[in-house]
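Supplementary Note 3. Input sequence used for the single-chain structure prediction.
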Amino acid sequence: MNYLVTGTDTGVGKTFCCCGLIRAATKAGLKCIGMKPLCTGDTEDVHLIAEAAGNRVPLHLINQVWLRPPLAPYAAAMLEQRPIDLLAIKEAYQELSSRHEFVLVEGAGGLLVPILQNYNFRDLAADLNLKIVLVAGNRLGAINHTLLTAEAVKQAGLQLALVILNELGPAPNLAGQTNPSILEELLTAPLYTSPFGNSDFGAALKMLNPSFGQGT
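The predicted structure, written as discrete structure tokens, is reproduced below.
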């Protein structure tokens, strides 16, 4: 099964967690790849994802649309007066998924960020038959933002496979200390708390599928 890695907001560590999962899957013996089909602003995320997978595939399969303004894809495309080619994204995904056991598709911002006027990352996940990995920054507001996104996933008939509560600093404040237990109580999806600077996402990988962590 393949996954959309989305966030409760921008700047919560989606790429960091996505790369961590790719490395953990590779270590477990899985043929794994990541892609960032829509990238705005700089292209650092694209190169980090490619590097996490060992730079094994050309960048045009990892990223199909790059727009210079650091905005939601729909807004950036309007500013650049460029169309967004959904077909190219779907064809690249099909090629990667045919060659890999495990594909992580990283979104931009949150689940409902628009790609086109009437099409967002939730729609893309539905079209590609992706389960959802949700990354939330462990800070004040994470509970509300996580539950809102979980509700949006449920309303679309998609599956929330994993929530990653990502530590954004070395010393969590009071909200950061209490968020994990509250979210574990309120969520039906598994919750993984990623420590600051985490270098091993093996436990998170097992939460997605216990067989993923068995190695070869």
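The CA atoms of residues 61 and 92 lie 5 Å apart. Residues 3-31+85-208 form a domain with the Rossmann fold fold (CATH 3.40.50.300).
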